[in-house]
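Q: Predict the assembly, please.
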Amino acid sequence: MPITSVTKQPEKLSLTVVADFPVPRKRLWDAWADPRQLERFWGPPFAPATFTHHDFRTGGRAEYYLSGPNGEKWADSWQFTAVNPIDSFEVLDGDDNADAENMPTSMTFTFEATPTGSRLVHVTRFSSVEAMEKTIPGMEEGFRAAMPQLDALLEA
Amino acid sequence: MVALREESEESLNRLFRALADGTRRDILARAIAEAPSVSELAARYEMSFAAVQKHVAVLQRAGLVRKRANGREQLVSTDRERLQRASELLDSYEVLWRQRVAQLDDVLREGE
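A: Predicted assembly structure:
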């Protein structure tokens, strides 16, 4: 399993994921830079992602939707607030026209070289519980269903 | 309970004023127990919906409760309930990210 750690801070509404991969940093970066690769892993197994727009540079936008198992479509858009090729990028996720209470969720991605390849350090900071609910609409059950399988997977 | 970290005198005053009213203490107790909606609360007291909303707003300004939308309802909950919900949601996000990383790993191993 490439995951090194997952840190959850409910009081800060933040999630930190660290994962190591046996590929050079450039190869890892390219997976995020190329929408055709990105859509192969961004969505959960039961709701694959389709990126219709991916302007991967500072100030650019991405647009995508997830296709749910019952024909649902969950659309989302990102704003790239910083893109520093092969080092890091930052995203604001959610409504551009959000009011103060529903500020967009921020995501940061940092790529580090390691002796065995590369490391991804990802942090999501949700602005509110409401924002968390909105980001996985109708998907929570899918994840809950996956929880027992996940436990089995981790014990294997 | 609300953590009091370096609270200014003003916010302490707000807290005590919020708790000085019997209806507000009752609303707080219910919010701790069950996160009722504003309409459910309004049905319980001999006062208008607007008056109940005002009481909730006083509790909110004192940092004792939060309001969150659930469809067309406004749910009144405490920090504890919010933390619990945040925790639940983060668990779902953890599953999402573990799946995501596993899928990314597959993409990287396959090459282009």
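Chain B has five helices and two strands. Residues 79-110 of chain B form the longest helix (32 residues).
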